[in-house]
Design brief:
By secondary structure, the protein is mostly helical. The chain has one domain (2-266). Helix content is 78%, strand content 0%. The protein contains eleven helices and no strands. The protein has helices spanning 5-31, 38-64, 68-96, 100-114, 117-143, 148-171, 178-207, 229-238, 246-264, 269-274, 276-280. Helix 1 crosses helix 4 (100-114).
């Protein structure tokens, strides 16, 4: 059960973002009397889902066919890429959360004025597709800390919860503090990203690309083994390693310190003057 949490968290967060995007577009169409054009949005959404599934299949199939040192390099590179994309996504959502509704409505209005259903469908395709491609990459990284079955089950549960919650928000029957939701999930994802960073470095240790400097700084496996239930949970969610190298330890805590500070630091006076929306938020 614990091994499902990373995948569940990823698909819940990404799925809810996608559901909010679709909900904003559909609500604006209804508001402007263009509800009959919603079919283009759904076709664009379904197309993005299909492309995301295809991208995920290509990633997993490619990774499965590479073995030895090349496989370690591929997995390490993909894991570090996932760390970077995950970090960017967290900060992107933090910046865009205030203006995303207004921005999407302006894009929908432009598509409506062009009179092209294709433009409307393409808007949904691109907006939702970005979340889908991110999810495919994150799911690949998540399976490195757990089993494929646990990751798949967790991913499906998270996606189902995101769709249900997105529908309730669209219908106005749910009252979710989105700011609190994204802040809490951002903290958990930052911890997960720190673990991904350390895991990617470990793969490069195995491939002989990065020297560990000190191979094992400590060994807590006799006290809390990675293979135990609690150890497996901590490994899957927070990147726990019972015997990490010095480089892994430095990377893990440096990431949390620097990125955590950048995320939670209060805005400067200059930023408040140039961004009234952030000041009000």
């Amino acid at each position: 059960m614990a091994e499902m949490i990373p995948a569940l968290l990823i698909t819940l967060r990404e799925g809810l973002e996608a559901a909010l995007i679709v909900g904003i577009i559909l609500a604006y169409l209804v508001k402007t009397g263009n509800g009959r054009k919603a079919g283009a949005v759904w076709w664009g959404t379904l197309g993005s889902v299909a492309v995301s599934l295809l991208a995920g299949a290509v990633i997993f199939r490619t990774a499965g066919g590479i073995e030895g040192r090349a496989g370690e390099i591929f997995e390490g590179s993909a894991t570090l890429l996932a760390t970077g994309v995950l970090t960017y996504m967290i900060f992107w959502m933090r910046r865009q959360a205030i203006n995303i509704r207004r921005h999407l409505q302006a894009q929908v209005q432009t598509a409506l004025e062009s009179g092209s259903l294709l433009a409307l469908g393409l808007l949904a395709f691109v907006a939702v597709g970005r979340e889908g491609l991110e999810t495919a990459l994150f799911m690949f990284a998540a399976t490195k800390a757990t089993t494929a079955l646990a990751a798949t089950a967790g991913g499906l549960l998270g996606l189902a919860a995101a769709v249900a919650l997105g529908f309730l928000l669209y219908r106005g029957t749910a009252r979710l503090n989105l700011r609190a939701f994204f802040n809490v999930t951002s903290v958990l994802l930052l911890l997960f990203a720190a673990g991904l960073l350390a895991r990617g470095i470990h793969e490069f240790h195995e491939a002989g690309i990065i020297s560990p400097v000190i191979e094992s700084v400590w060994n807590t496996n006799p006290v809390l083994d990675e293979g135990s239930v609690l150890g497996g949970f901590l490994k899957a969610v927070f990147g726990y390693n019972g015997n990490p190298s010095l480089v892994e330890v430095l990377a893990y805590f440096s990431y949390l310190l620097l990125v955590g500070w950048a995320y939670f630091r209060p805005p400067t006076a200059k930023e408040l003057r140039t961004s009234p929306e952030r000041a009000n938020a």
